[in-house]
Amino acid sequence: MMSEASTVLYFVRHAESRYVEGQERERGLTEQGHQDARTVASLLHGEQIQLFYSSPYRRAVDTIQILADRSGGMVVTEEDLRERQLSSSDVKHESFHESKERLYRDLTYAFPGGESGEQARLRAVAVIEIILDKHAGHKVVIGTHGDVMTLILQHYDASYGYDFWESTTMQDIYKLEFDGTHKLVQVTRLWE
């Protein structure tokens, strides 16, 4: 049960999207991803959500757009909710998972042309804090990505890190309940 001052954020990690080199912003959802976006809309429609924010990346917006349409809401994109930039595309380093693990072990480390966990977390959390202030007591959907979602969660609870990131799926939904002081009081995974 939500208290008067509670604010609920629904982090919706984007659905399946084919990786295309150099198309980080533009790549959309696969057919499975579109099906999962419809499932997200069905799962969350009964939650009475009216506010929708998203990373500007098409796959994140597309994942929550059906829900926003059904709810009569509009998706507001926020540049600082974008996914973490791992490195410039010409940089060669260890495997993807080894790279991610290294970045979570040292939140100040960044590959050339990329962002450290600390840099990405600070920019994204600044947006989340504004949303928590502006929409206190409301329910808000956030269209997001695995890495930046994990870093935001880590800001509020240090136990979130590489293992959590690795456990998330494409499509995923986490319900975060905050009290009136922006303290994270509960996280519930809604996607099974």
SSE run: EHEHEHHEHHEE
Kindly report the spatial arrangement of strands forming the biggest sheet: 3-2-4-1-5-6
Our measurement of the CA-to-CA distance between the termini, rounded to an integer number of angstroms, reads 22 Å
Total beta-strand segments: 6
Question: Which residues sit in consecutive blocks of at least 5 with pLDDT less than 50?
Answer: none
> Count of helices?
6
The average pLDDT is 91
Radius of gyration over C-alpha positions, nearest whole angstrom: 16 Å
Largest sheet: 6 strands, mixed
Principal-axes geometry comes out as: globular
**Percentage beta strand:** 15-25%
Structural class: alpha/beta
Q: Residue share in helices?
A: 25-40%
Give the helix/strand layout:
Layout (H helix, E strand, L loop, with lengths): L6 E7 L17 H15 L5 E4 L3 H14 L3 E3 L18 H10 L11 H18 L4 E6 L1 H11 L5 H6 L4 E7 L5 E6 L3
Parallel strand pairs: 1-4, 2-3, 2-4
Antiparallel strand pairs: 1-5, 5-6
Helix pairs in contact: 1-2, 4-5
Structure description:
- Strand 2 (51-54), helix 2 (58-71) and strand 3 (75-77) form a beta-alpha-beta unit.
- It is globular, with a radius of gyration of 16 Å.
- The protein is of the alpha/beta class and 192 residues long.
- Helix content is 39%, strand content 17%.
- Helix 4 crosses helix 5 (146-156).
Keywords:
globular; six-stranded mixed sheet; 192 residues; alpha/beta; 6 strands
